[in-house]
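Why run this: before we spend reagent on co-expression, it is cheaper to look at a predicted model of the complex and decide which construct boundaries make sense. The entries below are exactly what would go into the expression plan.
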Amino acid sequence: MVYTSMHGTPEQLIACHECDLLMERVASKPGEDVICPRCHARLYYTTINCIERLLALSVAGLILFLPANLFPILSLRIFGQSQSEIILQSAMSLYEGGLPLVALLILLFAVVVPLFQLCALFYISCTLHYQLEGRLLRQAMHSYQHLRGWGMLEIFLLGVLISIVKLKDIADLEIGLGLYSLAALIVITTLSSIFFNPHQIWDEIHQHRQRSFSDD
Amino acid sequence: MTEHSPRYRSARQSGYLLCIDCDKLHTISQEGQHCDRCGARLHSRMPNSMNHSWASLLAAILLFLPANLLPIMTFKSFGQGEPSTILGGILHLLEQDMLMIGMVVLIASIVVPVLKIIAMIILLCTVQFRLQTNLRQKTIMFRIVEWIGRWSMLDIFVIGILVALVQLGNIAHIEGNSGATAFAIVVLLTMFSALSFDTRLIWDKRAPELPPGMTDKKDEQ
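The model came back. Tokens follow.
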């Protein structure tokens, strides 16, 4: 590969998003990453059936989101008294206990952001796969990209495990259906962030827009 | 080839500009306009990246003290129990021979925020004073910082779960305290600091050159 003589049109060139190095674009085969030679960032790659996989994952995620949020995660029993909790109650109890900001952050990071991301992913993949009219495609894509890293279900799960260890000596604990659903949901969101290939999706969105413009 | 090989030229030096949202390449004269593919506003470098990053980081450093000195939660059983700080909670876990869990909480709540703040200071100083050593290492450092920073929210989630679960009146009762708010803001601010930092600035060794005849509307350096 030659990294000098950069006098092509913008379409023939690519710049690294992490160090701004200018390079000639090379084709990437499926399963092969194109790496920046200077800072080693992954520039682009090809994901097979990217849209279809994301569609399947987002449907599975939206289904799992319900039991993960509606069924109790943990139940606790001391001296005959018992208490169980769903994810939303963590935020509600903190709000009632006078920590509204912390409550809001938990609500956002553990419920709202993951749900919003799943909806955005479903909208993007469904629109692109079935060639529907997608007026909000670019907005959905931007919001999904900017929210990456702000959904913290896996950290919440680790928090549950630490709470179990902290409480196991003083009370009887029972793991609820919600926790299993949450674990499955984390597998889904992790897989979808692996298969989420921004380059490919932006290309598809571009083609989608051109098609709908030529139809008008 | 080394990191500083003269054969490497940045897009900015060659008169190009990369859309950070969809990675489409534009000419640098389109600075401030909207990307024709994704609609995002185009900037050769994130506007005011250094100012925003420093501001969030300094605020995080200031709040780090109340976050660690104020109690984060109170556990009361049969009327007994004291408010505990982050460090107090970790020591309590270690005393009870829960070494593994104690270590996890120690790393997430103290080690990671401290290292993240130090790493951001190093990165910001690198750009501010145009240091030119180990740029690739610094890029890797930033990637680690960006990925690991969110795990500091762990303690906040633990407080949320415990407060919701242990509400058994006189028998056992856990409530959150104001230290938790301060700690949550520290984590949030360090995440904002990393988010506003433009890694491309690390690689701009000198004041970024522009091709002759072109002026940059938003030159921050």
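Chain A is about 55% helix and 10% strand. Residues 2-45 of chain A form one domain. Bring this page to Monday's planning discussion.
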